[in-house]
Amino acid sequence: MDNPDLPENSKEVESCEICIEPMTQEIKFENNKRCVHPFCTDCIVKYIEAKVEERVTKLLCPAFNCKKLLDPFSCRQILPAGLFEKWCDLLCESAVVERESAYCPFADCSALILNECEGNITRSNCPNCKKLMCFQCKLPWHVGFRCDETQEMKDENDIFFGELVDRNKWKRCPGCNFHVERFEGCQNIKCRCGVLFCYTCGRVKSTCECYRKNVVVVEEGHDRGNRVVVRPNVDGVI
User: Fold this and answer.
1) Residue 116: partners with Cβ closer than 8 Å, 6 or more residues away
2) In a domain, 207, yes or no
3) 3-state secondary structure of 94
4) d(CA 165, CA 177)
5) pLDDT tens digits, residue range 186-221?
6) Do 93 and 115 reside in the same domain of the chain?
7) 139 is in which domain, residue-wise?
8) Pairing mode, strands 112-114 and 123-125
9) How far from chain centre, in Å, is Cα 29?
């Protein structure tokens, strides 16, 4: 029978599963409804402190066979500020390891950037300096050039040409890698190297699924840097 002389909050007394001491609701740890195993706040603080020293980031409830994680925000109000900060630092380090990351390639910035999107990304804005970079090769954005060609970029003229390629949507011959500028005619291009490809998708014609059948022939002797121009071939229906 309940003792009516006891305070209301003293009627519900449980024992901490770590220290086995009785505890009232005031000192019972609440894991944000993830689980309800009885632990006193002192034992939880000591448990977290030990795990943080071991550099463990994902802290499981200390109850036997419980797979629920401790909620950092539920723990914040009972932890010393320094301990909570250490735990947060470990969580951040863990997030960096688990996610694809890169450092801004510009010497005046060097900020750490995380890929928070699903799948591969290429062009990215540094959230700190706002400059463009390539997330795949970790270098300044190389518009018009593939990642494996960035080491060949010598000066600002290369960058300017890359921007020109991107702006005009020039395509590359899949055989010789020359950029092709299409002025008129159909989408099927026959490069001077002999490769027949589709200007729409950039694939060799044998693997292209586009429906057009006419051919445009790359005209000899019209090099412009590392690109060529094309003219329509009136006899080129295949």
Assistant:
1) 99
2) yes
3) helix
4) 13
5) 778 888 888 888 877 777 877 766 654 545 555 554
6) no
7) 99-168
8) unpaired
9) 36
